[in-house]
Amino acid sequence: MISPTFRILEVNLSSGRSAIRSMPGVETCLGGSGLAARLHLDLAKPHLAWDDPAQPLIFAIGPLTGFFPLMSKSVCAFTSPLHSQYAESHAGGRSALALRFTGLDALIVTGRSERPVVLHLGCNVIELLDAGYLWGKDALTTGKLLRSILKGSGHRTIIRIGPAGENKSAMACINVDTYRHFGRLGGGAVMGAKNLKAIAIEGNGSQDLPAGKDYSALYADIFRKLTDTDMMRKYHNLGTASNLEALNELKALPWRNLQATSDPGITGISGQRFADDTLLRNAACSGCPVGCIHIGFVREKFHADNQYLYRQVGYDYEPIFATGSMLGLTKAPEVLTVMDEVEKVGLDVMSAGVALAWATEALEHGLVSVEQTGVGLRFGEVEGYLKAMPMLAGGVNEFWRLLAAGTMAAARHYGGQDFACVLGQEMAGYATGEVFYVAQSLGLRHSHLDTGAYSYDQSNAPKDVTKALEFLLEDERERVVLTSMVACLFARKVYDPDTLRQCLTVLGGREIADGLDKAGSRIQNLRWQARIANGYDPFQVKIPKRFLEVSTWKGQTDPQYLENLRLAYAKAIKEMSGQGN
Amino acid sequence: MKQLVASRMERCIGCHSCSLACARLVHKCLSWENAGIRIQSSGGLSTGFLAKVCLTCDPPPCAAACPTGSLKARKGGGVVQQKKLCIQCGKCAAACPVEAIALDRLGNPYVCIHCGSCVDFCPHDCLEMREVEA
Lengths: 581, 134
Ligand code: SF4
Ligand code: SF4
Ligand code: SF4
Fold this sequence. Notes:
Order of helices and strands of chain B: EHEEEHEEHEEE
Distance between the termini of chain B: 6 Å
Mean pLDDT of chain A: 96
Structural class of chain A: alpha+beta
Helix content of chain A: 40-55%
CATH topology of chain B: Alpha-Beta Plaits
Strand order of the largest sheet of chain B: 1-9
Radius of gyration of chain B: 14 Å
Largest sheet of chain A: 6 strands, mixed
Strand content of chain A: 15-25%
Strand order of the largest sheet of chain A: 2-1-6-3-4-5
CATH class of chain B: Alpha Beta
Helix content of chain B: 10-25%
Distance between the termini of chain A: 42 Å
CATH superfamily of the largest domain in chain A: Aldehyde ferredoxin oxidoreductase, N-terminal domain
Number of strands of chain B: 9
CATH architecture of chain B: 2-Layer Sandwich
Strand content of chain B: 15-25%
Number of strands of chain A: 20
Low-confidence stretches of chain B: none
Number of domains of chain B: 1
Bound molecules: iron/sulfur cluster
Number of domains of chain A: 3
CATH architecture of the largest domain in chain A: 4-Layer Sandwich
Number of helices of chain A: 25
Largest sheet of chain B: 2 strands, antiparallel
Shape of chain A: globular
Oligomer: heterodimer
Shape of chain B: globular
């Protein structure tokens, strides 16, 4: 049932004390994205550094979390080490249901522990466990060790960082239950700065349900839509990896640091190839019957006497783009091996892949030397990339420390800004055109998921700034409602506004349902306020030259359209944040 | 007499839809643990899933351990449950050799009563209702 107040746990790692409080405002900020932005506005300190102990690390779920299928994500918010501004990242795994069954709408971690710790939570436990012996361990080993250390038969989520987070890399991700991530904008570094190696949450409570049959009937209805129809087939069939071939066909798949947008090498890394040659099985986030997680395997001979080891690696479109086409790797097993390395060191795979693509080209141009990088990098050669990942995560020398602060930070130092594939942060895998470049560059999370701009590009809409802007603003507003619930965006077609209203109403949230549209607009503005509170100026965002050179099925990027849309979106962002005129 | 059998767990994706269905439809709550069937990763998510569910012992040791008759032998194996007789002693859970009985934080036991409500919520047909001789 939906409560009119949020239940929030705040853990201070400096003092070791915790407080549970209730906060009004469910009808205005809903939960998830809205709640996270509200809490960040209330608690973050814009005048202090991103890694100041006072800065909060926030996890939030929404009013529908766990109550309906695919309401299976949580939102993580923090001040980003990349740009020192508000950042939001989303992940699934067991994180959302674990928070739900701990009875929390949000968890806030402040302060900094003197020694490395694991925060262990449940309905009847809040404790900090010494984790000195886990420091330095990779993200996969950390998960395994914690599973055996934290005995008990119940379900839990284990949210942890690898060496990249410990080293406060702006590309450090937070690993959630091995195969999911709060990937982007450096959340892992925020945990590292707090000396927080992991958060384990036992979801050992239960929640009341409304009396009568309406709730179960609505649940079953939505469940059938998600499983009996073709709507979700794409996601559990080949998964997002099916996009590789499609985008390559459209000349919109970034290859070798976006020097090309299509390549015959696609046959080695298509979704079908991954499925045929490597797919071991699928897995799902808790509460999601779709099961989009694709786990591939790769075996490796480590001794001449036929001694093999094997790795199981989760794959998706974005990781294949970032460690495959972007690095010129065209053999699925090699791509999986790189991904496995990224997973262990705890880097965000998109940022890491794009950063190494830039480094490769910088080496080609002689902007940096092999003496500086300590390793040779060449497109299509896997060995260099395998060696480079731990160097990037570890910030082992000046070059890698600069690169770990972001590709553009390194490019500013060494040159090569023109070919740094950075759109606010390292690009996602869509060389689809002007609307996507502007959307990721300026977007709140600099994510391909802020809006569906890449599909707008693919719809061949006319180059009309007003129409494109309208799309960006409306699509963002709709998504903000979903990420406040917190739905997986793959379910966006099922959870149309009417369905969301029915879900809220059946759980006793009639008023929230009635005010949903208004809340959506308000949250959209609230998030921009949170972003701009830390000094974001959308007018200052530049789109590197490489994106102007790109040629897709539509031809070359239109610089005028790009610039006009950039200015229009920047103006709209200012207006949404209440600073427009 | 039909029994729930988790016969195709190799297909399981760990979505918990079955447990959520049992909690929702049988126990009228939202939970992934207060349910007759619970899904566990068999040693880390990376090696597949196991179902913790009643294997229909005949005679059932859990019923033998129950001091009040809250759990009684069911024809064909397994148990029937009368919740109002339960004193939350936890003896049944301790007696079950396969950890099929979950206790919530108050000590209430959750055990499969072989009603079949969860079967249709498994997206991969891991579960089936199988006819057995009573
Ligand atoms: S609950 Fe356990 S002990 Fe009781 S009948 Fe089922 S498997 Fe046997
Ligand atoms: S058969 Fe019925 S009681 Fe047993 S797990 Fe399924 S829903 Fe629960
Ligand atoms: S519903 Fe089926 S696939 Fe999902 S956890 Fe249960 S047995 Fe596994």
